[in-house]
Amino acid sequence: MAPKDSKKKAGSAKASTTPNVSSKSKDEGKPFPKTSISFSIVMAVIAFLGGVLTPPLRHMLRERGDDVNISVSSPYIPLPFPLPKRVPCTSSNLDNFLHAAPVSGLHVVCVEPMYLGGDGEDHLFPQWDDLREQNKILDQFDSVRLTSYKNSYSAPVKNVVVLRGEDGEDVGRRLPISWSKMKNLLYTELGLLHEGSKQQPWGLYTTSGERIIGELDEVTDGDGFGSSKHIMSSIVASGIIVVVQGGNWLWPGVREGFLRTIELATPSNAAISGSRNITIETLSLKPLVLSIEGFLSEDECDYIAKKAEPTLKYSGVSLKDADVGKAASNWRTSQSTFLPAQGDPVLLDIEHRTASLTRVPRDHQEYVQVLRYGHTEKYDSHHDYFDPDHYRSDPNTLNLIEHGKKNRFATVFWYLTDVEDGGHTIFPRAGGLRELSYTDCSSGLKVKPQKGKVIIFYSLDASGAMDPSSLHGACPVGEGNVKWAANKWIWNAPMGYVR
Ligand SMILES: O=C(O)CCC(=O)C(=O)O
Ligand SMILES: [Fe+2]
């Protein structure tokens, strides 16, 4: 069974010559022959904004669904938001994204801009750290060197290809590389699948989880936001890109115990109310389980439990075909309630923070489901996804999940209290183990409840497929203890709860 969903009620639920980057070249074959002045001005303005508007804010602006049209005192505003912060393709940067074993559907690609030299050869630009230099490079590159790490596998053999722009009318000149050409190459290099009846469209991201473009996103004409030029500039500016077959960003686990610090935007209604850094620890790679301490404040935890208390009821589960007619208490003896965030600044703030944490838009979230477990209460091991094969005689669930295309993608699980004895969340299949039974709490990864901590576990893998290893349960709570917790379920597509 999967835990019951509130939506159902609503009905549906490298260079051999070194170019002088700052010189104003006029000769053919030099890296910077002609510069489009208007594009450079715009890029300079954008570079400035790039320093002011940090990634989380951009993320948040998108999150908020606001029109990301930052007005600047320039007549040219072709790129309405700043280009990503560059993460150059060095081995230490790659170490934060590659894995010792393949991770299906999670691809990492190094993108290095190149130019056609006077010798008729392709040359890499030298490394840069100045945004002005970057703007010139973005205006001048006519080929890219791509190093692909399919399935983010740090295999000793890597795949390197050079993608060149078409020959231009002038001899020795090439046209800029189009996004469609780049996209075709990614299909072959990475073995990408097209969107289909069971497959969400893939997404292409910066290393901080900012979406650059998705399979079905429209490409606009001209040089502006969403144009081929803008997409290619963003890709090159990124340095390293991450392509996720399943469409939705997930934080690469890298290895057990890996620590990643990310910027978290905290605001909900204030445009610049600040950001803070948080650390994500990898608890397990398969299933992918991440832990973040202090995500929620003590006051928030207390507030949520208090708000939920009056409407708690003994929890239901979505019964699989084979279990129809059985009582939910066979598996789950806790109480629960869904809390809509509308009109509640505390819950709204956490929803925005959760979107920033996961880099999945807020409208993929369900309302939070708050849980209370008393002594002996528990929830046997289960999956949070809905396997269509188990709901063949339940048209409501099949509609909700669009027969398998749509599903719960991740759970951000909130611990609202410390629990001294028992109450662990158990992942009996972590590390390739096999569960002894759905009620066994002796083997597997056991996460101890800690007030304000959250864990993220992914029910779907990076390819978008259900991950059977995400099996998990709640161990019985010990005597004299009460466990308060909550499920924030995040779908692989918008849910339509939140505007
Ligand atoms: O309480 C826990 O630790 C896990 C609960 C859970 O998996 C659920 O409610 O779906
Ligand atoms: Fe669960």
Automatic annotation (TrEMBL):
> Does the keyword Oxidoreductase feature in the UniProt annotation?
yes
Alphabetically ordered keywords of this record: Dioxygenase, Iron, Membrane, Metal-binding, Oxidoreductase, Transmembrane, Transmembrane helix
Needed cofactors, names only, are: L-ascorbate
Question: Which residue intervals are annotated with compositional bias (Basic residues) in the record?
Answer: 1-11
Q: Does the keyword Transmembrane helix apply?
A: yes
What does the record give under GO molecular function?
dioxygenase activity; metal ion binding
What sequence ranges are listed for the domain Fe2OG dioxygenase? Answer: 364-492
PANTHER family for this protein? PROLYL 4-HYDROXYLASE ALPHA SUBUNIT, TRANSMEMBRANE PROLYL 4-HYDROXYLASE
For this entry, the protein name equals Fe2OG dioxygenase domain-containing protein
